Each structure stands twice: as structure tokens, then as C-alpha cells.
Amino acid sequence: MTINPVLIKSSFAALEPHGPEVAAYFYRHLFEHNPGVRSLFAEHLGEQQDRLWSALGALVTHLEDTETVVGLLQELGRRHAGYGALPAHFPAVGASLLAALRHFAGEEWTPETEASWTAVYGVVAETMGQALAETSG
Q1: Which candidate, 70, 48, 81, 84, places its Cα nearest to that of 120?
Q2: pTM of this prediction?
Q3: Could you tell me which residue ranges the Globin domain spans (predicted)?
């Protein structure tokens, strides 16, 4: 799978008016389908939802700047190690992220868009996972 920056950016533009709702949907989906991860998060998710949306925005903004994206993801991976995140959590997070994006992207969500976001998340999970493992190990 390859990342198509045009599809990522156009679909994200369709999502932007719904940012807080996208983040809230993501967490509802994650906890509904993976209740065991709920304890890793604060009871009130407002600030966490804002951070998720901000991180997605930074990822999309810097999508074609590999050095910046890798740095952002490594830092996120290191921080998540402190929260008790495990590499085994990444597939569930990816599934919930794609579900949230799909739900709000409307006509911008095509099979090609989903494939591109899946590829982006693959890079996210791999990069964060490596940093998480280095920090935990």
C-alpha cells in the first residue's frame, strides 16, 4: 500500500469541521470494541480528545516531511510507553481510527482513501511501536 498525500489531505479537510466529534467517536469505538484498554485512559477524555485531533492534524500537515513526522511519532511512542500502551494495542487503535475517519469523511471516503489511511496508520504504528519498545525495554 502506498500513501497518497492528496487523498489524505482532502479527506482530512472534510473531517476538520467535525474534529471533536471524530475524536469522541474514536474513543467510543475503541472502548466499545476493546473494553480492556479503557483503564489506560483518564475518566474524562476532553483533553485527550483534543490531543488526538491535534496529533492527527500535525501528521497531515507534515505528511510529506518525513523527518518531522518520524520525530512526532517517536515522541508519541515514548510518551505512550509511560501510559502503559503495548504494541498489541495498535491494531485496535488503528481499527477505531479508521472507523471514525470513515464515519465522518462522507463522500471523500473511497476505497483508495481507506487504503491510503491504512498505509499511513501502518507507518504510525511501526514508528510509534519501535519508540515504545525502545523506551519500555
Answers
A1: 70
A2: 0.93
A3: 1-133
Q: Which of 58, 41, 37, 78 is nearest to 120 (CA)?
A: 58
CATH number at 69 reads 1.10.490.10
> Of the ranges 14-18, 29-33, 118-122, 131-135, which one carries the lowest mean pLDDT score?
131-135
Looking at every residue in the chain, the average pLDDT score rounds to 94
State the Cα–Cα distance between residues 133 and 77, nearest whole angstrom: 8
Q: Per-residue confidence at 137, pLDDT binned at 50, 70, 90? A: low
Count of the separate structural domains present in the chain = 1
Amino acid 1: pLDDT: 73
Cβ neighbours, 10 Å, residue 132: 25
Q: For residue 17, what are the contacts with CB-CB under 8 A and spacing of at least 6? A: none
Q: How far is Cα 67 from Cα 47, in angstroms, rounded to an integer?
A: 27
In terms of residue numbers, what domain contains 54?
5-136
